[in-house]
């Protein structure tokens, strides 16, 4: 068996594995385009006979998706801004020093990362209602998501800061920069890519967040797309082509960002999550 | 005054400011709720006392009531089953894929990254897709299983109590496999190649090399990944909300969904808090294992 034949064989197997694994995604895209009767046909068709492209516009209109997606956007953007502003500095300090206090801080941060949202929502809901935060439900969700996701961001960004050589910052200090100047002009620009990738990851998570939004936001006009999808799927629904069209509109932008930035996201994730 | 400002711009004060705000924020929005949760689990909470802090303390009554309910033990059993089955499935398939892509043919890293799309998708969308795939009469999975002769009749994944939990496990394995694979790939690439060459020269076959080199060298990675898997599996909520809603008759209910259901469907916040406390203690135990197994890496 020659080397190139072996490589080609492995590549073909890998493609087959990817096809099997990504089949659910394919099924979402295909179902959205099927007509009502074709959807329930036995045997199911694996390619729509007459693709109905109008379904996207119809679902967008009837489910008022513009509003849902806008709310998702507001929540995700708010959470990312809050997390980036607060988390970057924290990650920088935790990367800069090695002592007992840093170990304790890191340990606490890691511990907060693991609390399941569905278990934390009970005290958050009761506490927020007592402080009147439920009057501004989207802000409440932003705060809750920020508290939930910031530890993950800190862990990822800390790994980025660790890879910035300490000598560069020291050289800047010797040259007469203040600590603030060295941070903003030397360290931050060097860590920019890692911070950006982490922020994108956080954004994608917050864009699909469900538990907090479902529990804290009562008013339909403030709910994000995940809650909208949940209320679309009643217990005895049969509008699966429309639900899949909704899902398509919802996830395609996320998937597009992911495929474009795939290499960076994967390397950012792997450097931070285990190290 | 001048000393303080110069410390803020050019000394330890700068670091303290940078770290004080995020830690304060985390304490307010994650630490305090944690404490409040414990307090609430010892109180009597109903819709009327929701707005006030002064609620009557009832000792362990919530916990005793909780375990007196007939559904509690089955739900805890479901949780254990869900966690074990999900982790086993994710880990085995993920490890298999990681070993496969480790052979490093052209295009391997790109294709491997493609698998991660499952991980970035919103959980509710994944749940919706699987809900449709697992549908009893028209689901494509039943069709494929019947065509390949594995089953004779349709399996009603979502409404049959014997299968409802496995429906969610299936979706969760799909969701978590890629993450396991990527982390295991990182661990695999950390093993020095010359170890394998030496073993090959000594005449060890592929199975022996896997058993005596790969597995022992991966020990700390595997420990971390299983602990992480436990943490992520206990966070899984969206799939339950999208596929079975814990039903039918609690047959697919797990503790993390039940806690939410008690609080927000039955408005029994005290019991919701009680089950949360039990689960959080459990999760914290898992995360101590995780932090310990990555400690040498944490120190950089």
Which features would summarize this protein structure in a list?
heterodimer; A: 275 residues; mainly alpha; MetI-like fold; 2 domains; 15 helices; 77% helix; 0% strand; globular; B: 300 residues; 16 helices; 72% helix; flat
Protein described:
- The complex is a heterodimer of chains A (275) and B (300).
- Chain A has 275 residues and is mostly helical.
- Chain A folds into two domains: 3-52, no CATH class; 63-233 and 260-273, MetI-like (MetI-like fold, Orthogonal Bundle), CATH 1.10.3720.
- Chain A contains 15 helices and no strands.
- In chain A, helix 2 (23-33) packs across helix 14, helix 5 crosses helix 13 and helix 8 crosses helix 15.
- The two termini of chain A are 39 Å apart.
- The mean pLDDT of chain A is 88.
- With 300 residues, chain B is an all-alpha fold.
- Chain B has one domain: MetI-like fold (Orthogonal Bundle), CATH 1.10.3720.10.
- In chain B, 72% of the residues lie in helices and 0% in strands.
- Chain B has helices spanning 2-10, 12-41, 61-68, 72-102, 108-114, 117-120, 123-133, 140-147, 164-189, 193-201, 206-217, 219-235, 238-243, 255-264, 269-293, 295-298.
- In chain B, helix 1 packs across helix 2 (12-41), helix 2 (12-41) packs across helix 15 (269-293) and helix 3 packs across helix 15 (269-293).
- Chain B is flat.
- The model of chain B has no long low-confidence stretch (mean pLDDT 86).
């Amino acid at each position: 068996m020659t080397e190139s034949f072996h490589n080609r064989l492995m590549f073909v197997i890998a493609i087959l594995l990817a096809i099997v694994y990504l089949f659910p995604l394919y099924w979402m895209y295909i179902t959205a385009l099927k007509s009502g009767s074709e959807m329930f046909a036995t045997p199911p068709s694996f390619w729509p006979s007459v693709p109905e492209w109008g379904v996207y516009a119809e679902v967008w209109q009837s489910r008022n998706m513009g509003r849902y997606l806008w709310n998702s956007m507001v929540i995700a953007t708010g959470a990312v801004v809050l997390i980036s502003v607060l988390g970057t500095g924290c990650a920088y300090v935790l990367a800069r020093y090695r002592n007992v206090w840093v170990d304790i801080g890191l340990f606490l941060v890691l511990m907060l990362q693991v609390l399941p949202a569905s278990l934390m929502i009970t005290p958050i809901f009761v506490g927020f209602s007592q402080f009147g935060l439920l009057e501004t439900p989207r802000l409440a969700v932003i705060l809750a998501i920020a508290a939930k996701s910031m530890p993950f961001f800190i862990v990822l960004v800390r790994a980025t800061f660790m890879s910035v050589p300490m000598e560069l910052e020291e050289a800047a200090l010797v040259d007469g920069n203040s600590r603030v100047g060295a941070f903003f002009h030397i360290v931050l620009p060097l860590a920019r890519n890692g911070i950006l990738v982490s922020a994108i990851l956080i954004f994608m998570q917050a864009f699909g967040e469900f538990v907090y939004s479902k529990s804290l936001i009562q008013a339909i006009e403030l709910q994000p797309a995940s809650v909208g999808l949940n209320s679309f799927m009643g217990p005895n629904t049969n509008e699966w082509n429309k639900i899949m069209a909704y899902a398509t509109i919802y996830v395609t932008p996320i998937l597009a960002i992911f495929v474009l930035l795939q290499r960076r996201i994967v390397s950012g994730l792997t450097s931070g999550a285990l190290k | 005054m001048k000393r303080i400002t110069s410390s803020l711009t050019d000394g330890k004060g700068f670091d303290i400011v940078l770290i004080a705000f995020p830690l304060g924020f985390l304490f307010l929005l994650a630490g305090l709720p944690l404490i409040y949760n414990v307090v609430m689990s010892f109180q009597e909470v109903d819709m009327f006392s929701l707005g006030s802090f002064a609620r009557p303390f009832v000792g362990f009554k919530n916990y005793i009531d909780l375990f007196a309910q007939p559904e509690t033990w089955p739900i805890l059993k479901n949780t254990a089953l869900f966690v074990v089955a999900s982790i086993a499935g994710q880990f085995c398939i993920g490890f298999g894929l990681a070993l496969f892509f480790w052979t490093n043919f052209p295009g391997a890293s790109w294709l491997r990254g493609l698998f991660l799309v499952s991980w970035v998708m919103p959980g509710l969308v994944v749940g919706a897709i699987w809900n449709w795939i697992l549908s009893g009469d028209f689901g494509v999975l039943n069709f494929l299983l019947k065509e390949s002769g594995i089953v004779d009749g349709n399996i009603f994944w979502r409404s049959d109590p014997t299968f409802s939990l496995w429906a969610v496990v299936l979706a969760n394995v799909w969701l978590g496999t890629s993450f396991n694979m990527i982390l295991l790939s990182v661990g695999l690439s950390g093993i020095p190649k010359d170890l394998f060459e030496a073993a090959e020269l000594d005449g060890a076959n592929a199975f022996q090399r896997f058993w005596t080199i790969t597995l022992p060298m991966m020990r700390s990675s595997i420990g971390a990944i299983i602990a992480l898997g436990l943490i992520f599996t206990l966070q899984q909520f969206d799939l339950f909300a999208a596929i079975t809603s814990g039903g039918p008759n609690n047959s697919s209910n797990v503790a993390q969904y039940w806690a939410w259901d008690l609080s927000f469907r039955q408005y029994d916040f005290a019991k919701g808090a009680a089950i949360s406390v039990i689960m959080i203690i459990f999760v914290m135990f898992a995360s101590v294992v995780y932090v310990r197994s990555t400690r040498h890496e944490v120190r950089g």
